[in-house]
Amino acid sequence: MEPQITVGLLTDATGAPLMIEAFEGNRAETKTMIPLIRGFVEAHGIADVVVVADAGMMSEQNLKDIEDAGWSFIVGGKIPEIPYAISQWRKQHPDAEPPDQLVLSQKQVMGVKADTRHRSVYFQYRADRARRTLHGVDQQLTKAANAVAGKTPVKRNRFITLSGARPSINRELEAKVKALAGWKSYVTNLDKPAEFVIGAYHQLWHVEHAFRMSKSDLKARPVYHHKKESIDAHLAVVFAALAVSHHIEQATGWTIKRFVRTFRQYRDVTLTLAGQTITASQPIPADEADILAKINNSDAH
């Protein structure tokens, strides 16, 4: 059986890798983030740290560890129950749809009396997010209705409740999901306005883009190595290529996929005939030459 690994990746605001570390595969992301950040902070002597992450990567203990280390955090995630701020807005506007990008806020107090944690939670409504969610809910409800009516087999569906041998549609869950459609929460211990917190979280798409690139364009997976040294070496090569790819994209404005496809055809060929060496080069058009010049100029700076 091949070894399983978990890769810890710390990036800058553009998604470019700053620090990479490999952990045993049986360690969850919630167990790898804090050691990775602490190692980077200690190595570079950084004092002001703000951790931005999805809620799935952060446990409540992680958030406490971040605060105890003197750091700050911004965490985005789903909303399991209707919060007070949203329920109050609904009561005050019973027949209205929330305006697009409406932001509501409320304070949150966590922990026991001897270890109280004060946080701010921002709830943002996006109309397009609501449309996507409601469309998905309608599809699931249609499948649930067909299953309850006996038209299709009963399959896993969160809106189906099995009461004895007779399935039914969970209308309470339907109402809650529809009431929260379009809303997303952002939790922070920073004393910053909603625009700053939400804007910082939305920069995570750079990191997601970096991971998509590393898995596809850079052929980072699967990894068939059995020694930690080999795994570390493989990851070092992959993420060095990722850093070069980011540099090319920023210098040229092209995606790395377009860059590779365009320049893959240009090669130098060396032939030896009757003791004579001949080098043949395919000429590069002016547009492509301008792209290469941009990279050379960025390197010079």
TrEMBL record:
Biological process annotations from GO: DNA transposition
Check the record and name the SUPFAM superfamilies matching this protein. Ribonuclease H-like
Q: Which GO terms describe its molecular function?
A: DNA binding; transposase activity
Q: Where is the Transposase IS4-like domain?
A: 9-242
Pfam families tied to this protein: DDE_Tnp_1 (PF01609)
Question: Please, which domain of life does this record's source organism belong to?
Answer: Bacteria
Q: Which InterPro entries match?
A: IS1634_transpos, RNaseH-like_sf, Transposase_11
- Name used for this protein in its record: Transposase IS4-like domain-containing protein
**Native species of this protein?**
Brooklawnia propionicigenes
Upper taxonomic classification of the species?
Bacteria, Bacillati, Actinomycetota, Actinomycetes, Propionibacteriales
